[in-house]
Amino acid sequence: MTKPKIFIDGEAGTTGLQIYSRLNQRDDIELVSIESSQRKDATERRKLINAVDVAILCLPDDGAREAVSFVTNPKVKILDASTAYRTAQGWVYGFPEINPGQREQIASAQFVSNPGCYPTGFLACIRPLIAKGILPHNFPVTINAVSGYSGGGKNLIQKYDTFHEKQTTETSLYPYGIYGLQFGHKHVQEMQKYSGLASPPLFVPAVGDFEQGMLVQVPLPLWTLDNPPSGEVIYDAIANYFQGEKFVQVAPFRDATVLRDGTFLDVIAVNNTNIVQVFVFANDTTKEALLVARLDNLGKGASGAAVQNLNIMLGFPEELGL
Ligand SMILES: NC(=O)C1=CN([C@@H]2O[C@H](COP(=O)(O)OP(=O)(O)OC[C@H]3O[C@@H](n4cnc5c(N)ncnc54)[C@H](OP(=O)(O)O)[C@@H]3O)[C@@H](O)[C@H]2O)C=CC1
Ligand SMILES: CC(=O)N[C@@H](CCC(=O)OP(=O)(O)O)C(=O)O
């Protein structure tokens, strides 16, 4: 049997390198690479994209749009890691666990968009509650999240690396900084579309002085509802929704061992895995709850998810290489 051919356009970037390292040990696929001197050569990229079974795009949005414009072979499948097509017509959203039937859609699609890192955490928390009617679709949702600096790609990694090398106290690189303060972050559209919320969530991201890892927090002021659900009801809804899923895991409810020293939910515990964990914290007396997702922004938030989608698109077992 001939092995499917895979080309990673943008193989030298942060996401591309991580996908490459997950695929290059495998003997069930053939990785096709571009000469490094030609990696931005449009003619060569066009040739390779149309000569493989799946092209994985790990490029800035404009580069991804350009790569898609190169496609002339109707048999080539495209898996795009950028933001360019996540809410576009004709594309399937590559979050296999998000809805029943999503895997089948990914398996038969020509064009699949890999979800954003923050949306992966957010949707794992909120989608079950909207889908099951535990929260109304017009609930005013806010999100606070923190990402490791690799989320900012090569440029931000280089900034932090330079800072770490110098280790000067006067260098003013942020140990923790919130951003996106003009609102309308590029992930908000996909967050709204795939959650089923009536309005965009108010999203405040942050970056911290650690390379990989992410926490996405969704506070729920349940006292605003006429009949607030209990913490148990919220937990059961999310746990049942993802029952049997390998890569979306719901942590035990009211179990202090999920916290380090019984106190802290740390950010790096699932680094280098393809797992997103969901936590539910609740107080039924004060009618407050907090949903938290923990993931590796480069794992289930990008490259791990891409490999999972690739496996589904090729008809392979979904966990291969993960
Ligand atoms: N980092 C992350 O956590 C995540 C990233 N993503 C998405 O993945 C995509 C890639 O991001 P990331 O890997 O972080 O970015 P990087 O900046 O680390 O890498 C992008 C790579 O693409 C190359 N490139 C740029 N333009 C072209 C072009 N026209 N033709 C060929 N190669 C090109 C760049 O080359 P050069 O360095 O020379 O410019 C670089 O090697 C982005 O769309 C990003 O939004 C998605 C989820 C998470
Ligand atoms: C820390 C940081 O800068 N994170 C990036 C998100 C990571 C990323 O590239 O997002 P995609 O998943 O959409 O590609 C940002 O906020 O723009």
Automatic annotation (TrEMBL):
GO molecular function terms noted in the UniProt entry: N-acetyl-gamma-glutamyl-phosphate reductase activity; NAD binding
Protein name, per record: N-acetyl-gamma-glutamyl-phosphate reductase
Compartments it resides in: Cytoplasm
Catalytic activity: N-acetyl-L-glutamate 5-semialdehyde + phosphate + NADP(+) = N-acetyl-L-glutamyl 5-phosphate + NADPH + H(+)
Provenance organism: Atlanticothrix silvestris CENA357
GO biological process, one term: L-arginine biosynthetic process
Domain Semialdehyde dehydrogenase NAD-binding: 5-106
PANTHER family xrefs: N-ACETYL-GAMMA-GLUTAMYL-PHOSPHATE REDUCTASE, CHLOROPLASTIC-RELATED, N-ACETYL-GAMMA-GLUTAMYL-PHOSPHATE REDUCTASE, CHLOROPLASTIC-RELATED-RELATED
Pathway involvement of the protein, from the record: Amino-acid biosynthesis; L-arginine biosynthesis; N(2)-acetyl-L-ornithine from L-glutamate: step 3/4
Pfam families in the record: Semialdhyde_dh (PF01118), Semialdhyde_dhC_1 (PF22698)
Enzyme class: oxidoreductase
Protein task: Catalyzes the NADPH-dependent reduction of N-acetyl-5-glutamyl phosphate to yield N-acetyl-L-glutamate 5-semialdehyde.
Gene responsible for this protein: argC
UniProt keyword annotations, A-Z: Amino-acid biosynthesis, Arginine biosynthesis, Cytoplasm, NADP, Oxidoreductase
